[in-house]
Specification:
By secondary structure, this protein is α+β, with helices and mostly antiparallel strands. About 50% of the residues lie in helices and about 10% in strands. The chain has two domains: about 200 residues, no CATH class; about 130 residues, no CATH class. β3 and β4 form a beta hairpin. The longest helix is centred in the middle third of the chain and has 30 residues.
């Protein structure tokens, strides 16, 4: 038990700040649709084929346009992505009528973009994802070991939102008692978040729902090869074909090929899908606009469908306000537990006990 306590304290002292910042940034992102504050963010969704097709043709005709994340029922603006010579994050928000609301030449001009980048990559790309993944696994260890360690002190349990005093013993007691209350919520946040970062961990978690091998194969995008991108692709025809195949689905993401020969990709969300951007996908030949393939997310293997539910659970894209409040409590608890763990470990460590005079004299004699 002493070894478990030591591991819990040391890993908390080393990774607690990362988890605290992830909890804080994740909580802020839960409400981004409310604080972005641009004209049109609250507009009702206009998802009819004629409106979406006309807007798509207009936006994708803009120089450098590379793709669109379409508006949805919670956020009324389209997000447009442009290709940048220096690989930057150039983009714009546009109304559902195709009018540009604002543009940016870097993610640092839009707080929702750089907060998202921090939460998912720590501003470090793939390397940052590895750090987050390790922190997620450590968070899972914290929850399990914390419950075990709390059991010894269960008779002293007191529910407090804040420590009684800012002394080390009071903070440690508050940490243990708050941790046991928040443990179920933290477990959901940590497991779903780590699933999106570490694919092997995700395959273990979805194993009860189906074959991980089949799920991994179904999730990976198929390889299609077509011609070079046409000078003026017929987006209306593509959207019309997509609506024919998935009549009740919303248009979610349109992406142009990254290199010559790759297809144009269109993601849609059917009503039964939890994933906000859907996983029902069509691929079109970039030269001719012909359908190369299509994937119906509702017919994917059970393991793949379980994997697709991790993000909407983690990001509170389902369940409305009740679930968003639950995940808010989880994020705030993670922020408090992680920051206090670092504070007590590095700045409120107990001082070594001084030997008593009697023992010193006895040792001398």
């Amino acid at each position: 038990m002493k070894l478990l306590d030591t591991l819990h304290r040391w890993t908390g002292g080393l990774l607690g700040l990362v988890l605290a910042l992830l909890g804080l940034s994740g909580t802020i992102l839960l409400y981004e649709h409310l604080w972005i504050g641009l004209p049109g963010t609250g507009d009702p969704l206009r998802g009819d084929l004629a409106t979406v097709a006309a807007t798509t043709e207009r936006l994708m005709a803009m120089p450098g346009a590379q793709g669109i994340i379409y508006a949805d029922g919670r956020f009324g603006l389209h997000q447009l992505r442009f290709g940048a010579p220096n690989g930057g994050d150039t983009g714009a928000y546009a109304s559902q009528a195709g009018e540009i609301v604002t543009r940016w030449a870097s993610q640092w001009e839009r707080p929702e973009l750089w907060i998202f980048d921090f939460h998912h990559h720590l501003f470090a790309g793939d390397s940052g994802e590895w750090v987050i993944g390790i922190a997620g696994l450590a968070g899972l260890f914290f929850v399990i070991s914390g419950v075990i360690l709390w059991w010894r002190t269960r008779k002293t349990f007191q529910l407090r939102l804040w420590p009684r005093r800012m002394s080390r013993p009071a903070i440690v007691m508050h940490h243990r008692d708050l941790g046991i209350i928040a443990a179920p919520l933290l477990l959901i946040s940590v497991v779903t978040g780590t699933m999106m970062i570490f694919r092997p961990f995700a395959m273990v978690m979805i194993a009860p729902f189906g074959s991980p091998a089949e799920a991994a194969k179904a999730i990976e995008p198929p390889k299609y090869s077509g011609g070079p991108l046409a000078a003026k692709p017929d987006y209306t025809a593509m959207l019309t074909e997509a609506r024919r195949r998935f009549p009740d689905a919303e248009f979610r993401i349109l992406s142009l090929p990254r290199k010559s020969g790759d297809p144009i990709m269109l993601r849609m969300r059917q009503q039964a899908e939890w994933l906000p951007n859907g996983r029902s996908t069509l691929w079109f030949d970039a030269a001719t606009g012909q359908v190369l393939g299509a994937r119906d997310a509702l017919t994917m293997p059970g393991g793949a469908q379980a994997f697709n539910k991790a993000f909407p659970i983690h990001a509170s894209k389902i369940g409305g306000w009740p679930w968003r409040i639950v995940m808010t409590l989880s994020g705030m608890a993670m922020t408090m537990l992680g920051s206090f763990a670092v504070w007590t470990f590095w700045f409120r460590r107990p001082k070594p006990a001084k030997p008593r005079a009697g023992k010193a004299a006895l040792a001398t004699s």
